[in-house]
Write a structure and sequence with these properties.
The protein is an alpha+beta fold and 602 residues long. Among the domains are: 91 residues, Phosphorylase Kinase, domain 1; 74 residues; 113 residues, Immunoglobulin-like (Sandwich); 104 residues, no CATH class. 32% of the residues lie in helices and 19% in strands. It has 17 helices and 23 strands. A hairpin with a 2-residue loop joins strand 1 and strand 2.
Length: 602
């Protein structure tokens, strides 16, 4: 039922329709007694027709009207006329939060400014025993001044028949009770369980996620998705989000209610810390102009001014130091522990380095260091090489300067890393963590050989094997003897189909000079003809067993060659004039993948 302008409900004259929602319609109206503009919410007819629901509406409206907070929309009055229940609220000039979020999300400082006001509104409501249950961007108004107003406190508790509302947008937790919007409701709401303040915290997290990223945390219109799925990490959606803010959102969106903030008050406290640390408000501690005005004797001006500047600088430094230390202990340390438990050592390490600047001797942080890092000793045959490191898994990670060689017991994050060694006049060397310290990072103590530019064979990289002692052996192989390997060159890239076809087309399978090793299989020696009969493709022609008539699949020129034996790999090495150094030949015809060819030398 839509009311036309001029319609009167008690003392209120309808002016225009402002919006339509699942619960009813909202109009702008004039309070004819006080001559002020108000907003009136008209409930759907089926909600007003049930006496029990009508009584519930009156009881809850009185409860909400008792909430007096700058960030909560004030309820002025309630009434009923001609079978229409209505609620009179303050009129807010502005727009809803959902219309204020750009595609890429709001700036972090503005997001925290709005979020803190919403949290303080929740804090006031939770203290009064009121749970919103339908917090979402369309229920949050932003005034032109930047003041935030939370709407519809308590209205989500209203009952309605299940058939009255779209299943895609609302859900019932008990017969006839509307409790929220799926994209923002908590898992316990989605499961029909009782809700409390922690449910509002989850909804708040979903709202803040959307404010920061411009995307919904749970885009699927399915309650099962809210219960089952985890949102994409916020720092992957938008990489400039501070770790402190990311931590707040993550905790709000925990599936287990006990893991979230207990109330709006605790959430507001955390957000205040973020604001103070990340976006401190500027201000003048002591005005030199005031000192000049109040100084009675000119000879005091300079000393007073110098004293004021020193005091102001000291006070500012102390305040910043206190804020940084508070953030490090209350925000950073718990987040480092959580990241370590999730095996996100790179993120945990970066956050710990930042926190250590503020709390260098903190015992809680000291206990976390061994879990997320280990000491590294790195040397190069020519000292003075710059060493860089970056995360192996994150393709977008940037290189971080570790220092210049030799590096002794330098702390670095656990996990897989790529290392780069650079020095002018020498080839750049790359290593991964396992190649520097096989199997156990605690033993990371390596010397990297640097070759002068032009000394390395084209397309090949030096491999410097370590001496595999018993302390470094894979568990279960402790009884094996030590093996000392010399340096050798390794092709940087795998042998491709196109390269191997050149060997095939040149008659490689007919030229005995390429086949240097005796053929064996199952302990039995094979003749040349017996061996060559095994090295056949799918059509019976010489070549890799996966090829057909001497051809590999179309479009796979640069794919690594597969389906060849150790003997074929060794013959190809001879064709390329590279010495194949394996001492343990595989059985011929086994179809072993030959991804690269090794050449001996130093």
């Amino acid at each position: 039922m839509t009311l036309i302008p001029g319609t009167k409900l008690g003392y209120y004259e309808i002016q225009c329709l402002l919006g339509v929602g699942g619960m009813g319609e909202v109009y702008r109206a004039l309070d004819t007694r006080l001559q002020r503009t108000v907003a009136i919410k008209i409930l759907l007819a089926h909600l007003s027709s049930d006496p029990d629901l009508h009584e519930r509406f009156l009881r809850e409206a009185k409860c909400v009207s008792a909430l007096q907070h700058p960030n909560i929309c004030v309820v002025y009055d309630i009434g009923s006329q001609d079978g229409i229940d209505f609620m009179v609220m303050e009129y807010i000039a502005g727009q809803t939060l959902d219309k204020s979020i750009p595609p890429g999300g709001l700036a972090a400082n503005l997001s925290i400014k709005y979020a803190l006001q919403v949290a303080e509104a929740l804090s006031s409501a939770h203290a009064a025993g009121v749970v919103h249950r339908d917090l979402k961007p369309s229920n949050i108004m932003i005034e032109e001044s930047g003041l935030v107003k939370v709407l519809d406190f308590g209205l989500a508790k209203l009952a309605a028949p299940a058939t009255a509302l779209s299943e895609a947008s609302t859900l019932l937790t008990m017969p006839g009770l509307v409790v929220g919007t799926i994209a923002y409701m908590s898992p316990e709401q989605a499961e029909g369980k009782p809700t409390n303040a922690r449910s509002d915290i989850f909804s708040f997290g979903a709202v803040l996620y959307e404010v920061l990223s411009g995307k919904r945390a749970f885009p699927s219109q399915s309650s099962a998705a809210v219960i089952r799925d985890e949102p994409k990490p916020l720092n992957e959606v938008r990489r400039d989000i501070p770790a402190e803010v990311h931590g707040v959102v993550t905790r709000c969106l925990e599936k287990d209610p006990a893991a979230r903030y207990a109330s709006g008050a605790e959430l507001a406290h955390e957000l205040k810390i973020c604001r103070e640390v990340l976006f401190p408000e500027s201000g003048v501690v002591l005005s030199p102009a005031r000192i000049f005005r109040e100084a009675r004797r000119p000879r005091l001006w300079v000393p007073l001014l110098v004293t004021a500047i020193i005091l102001a600088a000291g006070a500012t430094w102390l305040v910043k130091r206190y804020r940084d230390a508070r953030w490090a202990r209350e925000v950073a340390v718990p987040e480092i522990s959580r990241l370590a438990g999730a095996l996100k050592f790179g993120e945990a390490y970066s956050l710990a380095v930042r926190a250590e600047r503020s709390i260098p001797h903190d015992s809680a942080l000291a206990k976390l260091w061994p879990k997320i890092s280990y000491p590294v000793t790195l040397k190069t045959t020519t000292p003075g090489a710059e060493v860089y490191r970056k995360d192996y898994v994150d393709s977008t990670a940037s290189w971080e300067l570790v220092g210049r060689t030799p590096l002794m017991n330098v702390r670095q994050p656990r996990g897989m890393s790529i290392w780069k060694f650079e020095k002018q006049g020498f080839d750049t060397v790359f290593r991964t963590t396992p190649t520097l310290a096989p199997w156990r990072a605690e033993f990371m103590d390596a010397e990297v050989t640097l070759d002068k530019v032009g000394n390395a064979p084209p397309g090949m990289a030096r491999v410097s094997p370590v001496k595999y002692s018993k302390t470094l052996l894979i568990p279960g192989y402790e009884g094996l003897p030590e093996v000392e390997l010399k340096d050798y060159w390794l092709d940087r890239y795998e042998v491709t189909n196109r390269q191997y076809k050149a060997f095939l087309d040149s008659g490689g399978y007919q030229k005995r000079e390429y086949w240097k090793f005796d053929f064996q299989t199952g302990g039995k020696h094979l003749s040349w003809n017996e061996a060559m009969a095994l090295f056949r493709d799918a059509a019976g022609r010489p070549g890799p067993k996966d090829w057909i008539q001497g051809r590999y699949p179309r479009g796979q020129d640069e794919f690594p060659v597969t389906g060849i034996s150790w003997y074929e790999a060794a013959a190809f090495a001879e064709f390329c004039r590279k010495e194949f150094t394996d001492d343990l030949p595989l059985e011929s015809g086994s179809g072993t993948v030959c991804g690269f060819v090794r050449g001996a030398g130093k």
